[in-house]
Amino acid sequence: MSVEKTPVEDLTEEQAAAELAYLAAEIARHDELYHGHDAPEISDADYDALKRRNDAIEKRFPKLIRADSPSIRVGAAPLPTFAPITHARPMLSLDNTFSDDDVRDFVNSVYRFLGQLPDGSIAFTAEPKIDGLSMSIRYEHGRLVNAATRGDGTTGENVTENIRTIKEIPNRLPTGVPDVIEVRGEVYMRKSDFLALNAQMEAEGKQTYVNPRNTAAGSLRQLDARVTASRNLKFFAYAWGEMSEMPADTQMGMVEKFKEWGFPVNPLMKRLNSVDDIIDHYKQIGLKRPDLDYEIDGVVYKVDRLDLQGRLGFRSRSPRWATAHKFPAEQAFTRVERIDIQVGRTGALTPVARLTPVTVGGVVVTNATLHNEDYIKGIGNSGERIREEEHDIRIGDTVIVQRAGDVIPQVLDVVMEKRPPDAVPYEFPKKCPVCGSHAVREEGESVRRCTGGLICSAQQIERLRHFVSRDAFDIEGFGDQYVELFFAAGLLKTPADVFRLHLHSDEVKKAILEYRELLQREREERTGKRRKKVSAEDSRSFEGVDKLFASIDKRRHISFERLLFGLGIRHIGEVTAKALARRYNKPLDFLAAIIAAADGRPGSAWHILSSVDGIGGVTRDALIASVGSSAPAGFGLSHESWLSGVGLNKKQKQNLLSRFGDAEGVYRVVLAASKGAPNPAYKDLANQKDVGEVAADALIDFVTETHNREAVDDLLSYLDVFFDQPASSSSELSGKTVVFTGNLEKMTRNEAKATAERLGARVSGSVSGKTDLVIAGPGAGSKLADAQKHGVKIITEDEWLSLIE
Ligand SMILES: NC(=O)c1ccc[n+]([C@@H]2O[C@H](COP(=O)([O-])OP(=O)(O)OC[C@H]3O[C@@H](n4cnc5c(N)ncnc54)[C@H](O)[C@@H]3O)[C@@H](O)[C@H]2O)c1
Ligand SMILES: [Zn+2]
User: Fold this and answer.
1) Closest-approaching ligand to the CA atom of 37
2) Domain ends where: 555, 575, 592?
3) How far is the CA of 345 from the centre of ligand 2 (A)?
4) Is 749 inside a domain boundary?
5) Distance from the CA of 241 to the CA of which of 123, 152, 469, 634 falls in 20 to 30 A?
6) How far, in Å, from the CA of 803 to the mean position of ligand 2?
């Protein structure tokens, strides 16, 4: 998704520096994902756009070029899993060109650099840019001695054993080959092999691969060379590293030699002089692209004569004598058969278009994400149009999909001429397709979310993890694995199930045992070693289970604020939970307050009116009051004179008129707002410190969902909820600011903090003149020194404990 960016010419130096820092980190991250892990997060086109932005900023602010700039780095550091190999000559990247003009510029720059007129006398080779993984293979005395990936250009990964499994790559060379040669080229996977592999994965119920490039890279960088062998990888030779002797003096001549020596070379390579011929060859290759059995992402041009290449030399990350002319992102037409809604772990509803399968760049595309309901309508994240009016996406529509590189394809546009006459605008569901709870969309958000957090199976794992976590119910020993394990075993669905686990103690133990066996089997498969079987009688294995039940039991006595926070209601963080717990001191009061507030939840007109610039709460309420007392239209009072009578200043009046058209428009909105104005109960809830409207709305959404109330009632039947006493003002500590530092030995930090707060103290993270007391455990450092400096009283943990007794 594109975000509006400040044009490079408008950036201040400060903004430029900040953006370069961001881009350096972001591009390095994508390099690592792409080159290091063969698992990119963004498309190549998006990645290239980041690089271009970086280059443009650096061009305008050359002083700001960073030492870690992506314009001077290649690839990503080799993985430590493989032994490193330092390349005898660096393996560089290529400069990119995207338009015909860029190609002209490249050719002209070559002539200029060599001090020649662009008279067409210099020959260039043009060959497909294979989308694979570059490799340097070293032969000594005709024998393959090692092979390395590019890595960061200087050091690559030793993958010799894996390379030996590729049949196309000779192990021995014919006689007459120079003593030392390094042949470089691209390892790739054929599209047909890729599709067959995916078909097999699917048949075995396994995860399929995304594209041939990442699959080739992943297949090659395997610790077990047998896996590589099973993948039928291929190779094209097109470059070289160290050569003890040069067998040719042109690029073309070198590639011909490689062919003679038994290496596969690409048949579409040509030698050309004029820019027009070069561009024509690019187009020819582009036309053949869909029929080639390997993926290519452009055409590489290189100066043919090696002596000229030598004079042109290198920039920091690429040769000056070559460039890669990239193809635009690949697109195809297909039909939207269905729109499915997926519910994520946080409850977000994401629409996915199910497409008639279509091949885009060798990859069969069947799905495309539609992001959210606005995207379907053609509206972007900031409310801007991303497609023409009426080009909303409908079931039955023929659409243009783009697979800009590797990630999930996008639907670019709708072909209106092919829209079936009966296609209707897509109606986004208002209910969660997984659990049936209502799905709400918050003001200013594009995402619609399921409110049935506790009972929605799409979200349950996430909620349960949160429920048992440190800051919520704090159940000792209940880690994420247990949550997943018990969930999978059907023992744990809602929070109340946590307190029922001990009733299924045998099943709990069985689940844990099976899990341990699985871990052991995996370990054995990895290491090839067998171990003693874990036995059910092994009592030690289950020591932990009884402990777990004990720590669950301990938490049946729980504070209201932890309970509230533990439910994982959206926007109810610790601070808000605490504020609510302080305000209400019976669960029923709390529930009643929310139900009363639900009836008085303001309508959208009220929100719209509140959002007009310059209209604060007082003015808004005055406007609303005025429509209640005098009804203009019916009593001969014009809308204009009504508006003038409210007592607005000029600016406010202007803003209202420009937002709602005319006085009548303003009147209508105010009237609607008066009907949907918040009631006192809502205001009371939302106006509390640390609560606010967003949290109030989330609470209402949660409580008004029957399923949630049932789940909470169920939970409450196991709990003994206590409400923190309002801070007793008689306590010695009330109103004091305290700081804990060093290691506390008898209580956790959280416990210490909670007790201090219960006694009315404020807990701060740093010592200042305002601090009243520092509790220092062993290992206290700078805070202790600060306390001494400010003359603050310092006590030990034991002294603290006796103080609070
Ligand atoms: N999606 C992402 O997150 C992400 C991240 C990093 C890189 N990338 C993609 O990877 C590429 C950038 O990586 P790069 O630095 O390797 O540059 P590059 O792929 O643009 O060009 C250099 C490489 O081209 C290869 N190549 C293929 N055929 C060739 C031929 N005939 N002659 C010479 N070289 C040939 C070589 O392996 C060489 O190393 C871009 O396509 C970029 O979009 C994507
Ligand atoms: Zn749901």
Assistant:
1) 1
2) 555
3) 10
4) yes
5) 123
6) 49
Pocket test for ligand 1, best of 30, 32, 34, 137 (most atoms within 8 A of CB): 34
Q: What's the farthest any 2 CA atoms get from each other in the chain?
A: 108
Arithmetic mean of pLDDT, 92-103: 93
**Structural domain of 776:** 737-804
Measured in degrees and rounded to the nearest 5, phi and psi for residue 425 equal: -55, 140
Among the atoms of ligand 1, which is closest to the Cα of residue 91? 39
Substitution site in 94, 102, 238 for ligand 1 pocket (most atoms within 8 Å of beta carbon): 94
Q: Report how far residue 79's alpha carbon sits from residue 32's, in angstroms, rounded to the nearest whole number.
A: 10
Q: Which of 774, 777, 767, 771 is nearest to 797 (CA)?
A: 777
Ligand 1 proximity of 300 Cβ (cutoff 6 Å): yes
User: Both 305 and 162 in a single domain?
Assistant: yes
Q: Are residues 176 and 310 in the same domain?
A: yes
Q: Phi/psi zone of residue 65: left (φ > 0), alpha (ψ -120 to 50 degrees), beta?
A: beta
Dist. CA 541 → ligand 2 center (Å):
36
Closest C-alpha residue for ligand 1 atom 6: 31
Q: Is the ipTM of this complex over 0.90?
A: yes
Asked whether residue 119 is domain-assigned, the answer is: yes
Euclidean distance between CA atoms 805 and 803, whole angstroms: 6
- Range among 379-388, 469-478, 731-740 with highest mean pLDDT value: 469-478
Catalytic residues: 129
pLDDT at residue 269 in the model: 98
For residue 60, name the pLDDT band (cuts at 50, 70, 90).
Answer: very high
Atom of ligand 1 nearest to the CA of 322: 33
Residue 667 lies in a domain: no
**What Rg do the C-alpha atoms of the chain give, in angstroms?**
34
Among 326, 355, 379, residue at a domain's last position: 326
Ligand 2: centre distance to CA 703 (Å): 15
Confidence at residue 2, expressed as pLDDT on a 0 to 100 scale: 38
Residue 47 and residue 81 in contact, taking contact as beta carbons nearer than 8 Å:
no
**Residue bearing the CA closest to ligand 1, atom 1:** 44
Least confident of 110-114, 353-357, 629-633, 776-780: 629-633
What is the percent of the chain where pLDDT is above 70?
A: 94
Residue 635 located in a structural domain: no
Q: How many domains does the chain have?
A: 4
For residue 326 and ligand 1, the question of a CB distance below 6 A is answered with: no
Residue 744 annotated as binding? no
Sign of CA dihedral 771, 773, 778, 784: positive
Alpha-helical regions (H) of 425-539 = 460-468, 480-488, 495-498, 505-527
